[in-house]
Amino acid sequence: MSRPVLLAVALLAAGCSTTVAPTSKIVAQPVSAPRPIQISLAPEPPLLALVRTPPPRAINPLTGLAPRKVPVVVIKVDNASTARPFQRGLNHAAIVYQELVESGLTRFAAVYDGSWSGEVGPIRSARETDIELLAQYGRVTLGFSGANKGVMASISRAQRRGLVRDASYDSLKAPYREGLRRRDSYNVFSTPNKLRAARPGVPARDVGFAFAPLPKRAGRSAVAATIRFSDATSVVVRYNKRTGRYAVFQDGRPMRGVAPANVIVQRVAIRSSPYVDILGHRTPYTVTTGRGPAVLLRNGRLVTATWRRLTVKTGTRFLDDKGRDVPLKPGPTWVLLQPKGQSLTWSS
Q: Is residue 194 part of a domain?
């Protein structure tokens, strides 16, 4: 076990540890731990409070940094254990979504705003979930490699409706490079610039994020957290006070160079899709419209919220109990689309 992993384990074992399980039983804690706290939906905020206040100056709506006018590119990246040694480009994404796939595993949808021109990969297949999730960005370029016939048909319909631009390996091979073949898959790579040139989409727009300083005493101290997706997959994030960013560990292994300024845990419903993978496992469908509990981790603090997304074409807002936007720190954000009923624990 590497030293970063040992540190993460030690942090999670030390101090107070609290369990969040809004739709399942509270997980038993050590005798020395305080009483677990249950997070549920905040009271419904008044409608007038939901009016969005525009930022005082032009910013990049995805990062809160300097605005960029180039079209957004989203790339599906493999997160199988065999793929992790080959991963590249995730540390340069403006936003990364981690979503459940078959057999309790997860995959990434990495959003690029024009600030990165290097390679990204290994690139893997899309899911029907991605259409709903990414519609809030407008007609973005979607890079992926493979999907079953049903999902490809759904993406074709979504393209005709102006929801995405299909920039898949199946539809155009020139922007892609095949790497070494590992035992379970080919390693396929591309760059946001190549995909953007082949199937240009639209520039970044408001997807619901609000960037501002964190009020004093907001939330509670949380230097590390563990987020479970399934019995097979867990994510650990650990705050680095020196850099003001988070280290991310997948199933106990550190992700090289990955250091988001914000980590959002968005509790979502999971239903079965009509599709299966090549092994016959049913594909889960992640529901990203509606509302539900959420947690924001930034500056070593944990802030509870309610996420709200009214339609597939509107952004996802993260609100407190008064309907105010929970402020993100300028910089990259990781959004963990955690299935309801799975545990979230943290250490202060």
A: yes
pLDDT in tens, 22-65: 333 323 333 233 333 344 444 455 444 455 655 556 899 999 99
Number of domains observed in the structure of the chain: 1
DSSP assignment of 119-171 equals: -BB-B----HHHHHHHGGG-SEEEE-S---HHHHHHHHHHHHTTSEEE--TTT
Say if 288 falls within a structural domain. no
Q: Whole-angstrom distance between the N-terminal and C-terminal Cα of the chain?
A: 23
* Residue 97 belongs to a domain: yes
Domain that holds residue 144: 73-198
Residues near 321 by Cβ (< 8 Å), separated by ≥ 6? 42, 43, 45, 306
Q: Is residue 174 part of a domain?
A: yes
- CA dist 142 and 165 (Å) reads 6
pLDDT digits (tens, 9 = 90+) for 87-110: 999 999 999 999 999 999 999 999
**What is the number of other CB atoms lying within 10 angstroms of the CB of residue 175?**
19
Reported pTM: 0.85
Helix or strand run (H / E) with residue 344: strand 344-347
